Amino acid sequence: MKANTRQDYLQRIDRVVARLQAAVVHGGELPELGQLAAAAHLSPFHFHRVYRALAGETVGQTVARLRMLRALQRLAEPDGRVTEAALAVGYDTPQAFARAFRQVFDTTPSEMREQRERLRAEMERLRLPPSTAAGPEPSLQVEVVSVQPFRLVAMRYHGDPADLDQAYARLFQWAAGRGLLERMSGIYGVPYDDPRDTPAEQCAFDCALAFDGATVPVDGAMQAMELGGGLWARSRHVGSYDELADEIDHLIAGWLPGSGYVLRDGQPFRHFLDDPEDVPEAIQRADTYLPVAPA
């Protein structure tokens, strides 16, 4: 089967944007996740992740952008009025619309309407998603590997990903209290949410440790977990672990198109190869694993 190209993936995203734009223009209900995923010929499991990586924005940000574009188009009409523009893009009152408008453009709708040259420039800017103006994806060294299933002990963390070090500290304390540190064979993490899509305090992340030898009994907030199984695209990151948030996006946008592989359902995971307390930030290593299958 012919590998999916980047242009093919971008055309799928264009179909999604067209569905969203039609709903915004006609004032209809926004399509549901299943409908958007079907339009893009993508699994609902990975739809939001793939969309963000290729479009450079979330679906919610696309809708907000298209609504503001529609508002500018209404203001640009010879008899364009603020109230009509507000209602056309789903705001109940001109006041609510004006607040949102100022957050985006740092001016009022009435003032923008009088600045015809800027109005045209802003419309042109909002016609396309951020990805069209972005530079090339970072150069990636990716290998596809088969990973045998392996067991871990995990602790679910809810909160700002910037504070994950505190969660891992609690996990290490749990392992130390049970004399397990000498059996530890790996440090892993499973990100379920991204603060670009989800409020930081609601983000879920599994902090996990692998151990050699017999199965480790779990208790309290700990749970048994299994990772691996099947084929995975593996990419090595060197540098601060705080920079890992974009690694999955880079794999999807920069490597997956044209790779000969497609995503399969499953959560990506990270393998932290160095302890941040022992290794300088600039040379910390981590592998990101993305579940794939031959196209």
Write the layout of secondary structure elements.
Layout: H1 6-26, H2 33-39, H3 47-55, H4 59-76, H5 82-88, H6 94-105, H7 109-114, H8 116-126, E1 142-146, E2 150-158, H9 164-177, E3 184-191, E4 204-211, E5 222-227, E6 231-238, H10 247-255, E7 261-263, E8 269-272, E9 285-294
Order of helix and strand elements from N to C terminus: HHHHHHHHEEHEEEEHEEE
CATH architecture of the largest domain: Alpha-Beta Barrel
By CATH's scheme, which homologous superfamily of the largest domain applies?
Regulatory factor, effector binding domain
- Topology, number of strands: 9
Helix and strand composition category: alpha+beta
Tell me the radius of gyration. 23 Å
Main beta-sheet strand count, sense and barrel state: 9 strands, antiparallel
Average per-residue pLDDT, rounded, comes to 91
